[in-house]
Amino acid sequence: MNGKSHRLFFTAILALTFLHANAADKITIAIGGKTISAFRTADLESAKQEAAAAHKPIAWIASAPQLFDGHGTISLPNSRGATLHAFFALRDKAVLVFEDAYAENHKVLQLVDAALHTPDPHYTPPKVIFLNPDATEVLAKVEYEPDFMKRAHALADALDQVKEKMNNAPDAAKK
Known about the structure:
Layout: H1 3-23, E1 26-31, E2 34-40, H2 44-54, E3 58-63, H3 79-90, E4 95-100, H4 110-116, E5 127-131, E6 138-142, H5 148-167, H6 171-174
Parallel strand pairs: 2-4, 3-4
Antiparallel strand pairs: 1-2, 3-5, 5-6
């Protein structure tokens, strides 16, 4: 390799390293032709900042990462369909946070962990927990539902509850 090739090689390595570091902040999936991103639990502070700036709730989705393999649709009557459905339905209504329901079980924000395991301590993923932008209050929960239409209604009902609670929150909580 000559000097110019070395510089190009090292520049490419640095660029790839930078892109990989940034990619770790969010997961990105494509559903129905839409690209959807979600923060990882380790980057909750960034999710809170984005939620506060956008005046949106946080939708914390606990599921399995292997469900993001590019297969399936939102109408499937299983955890894959329910997970994809939650991501797709909430993509522009909330700031999304993804929890690996297996690897991160009992290792996340205590408020969320308690909500995930109530009323069923051994819940079936996915489960969606809606939080206020400061992540200090649970606003609504959506349990796993295999039926597409029931699931759609549960997500819509939860969003209505969230909107109502956020609209009735003291001004300090709305910021």
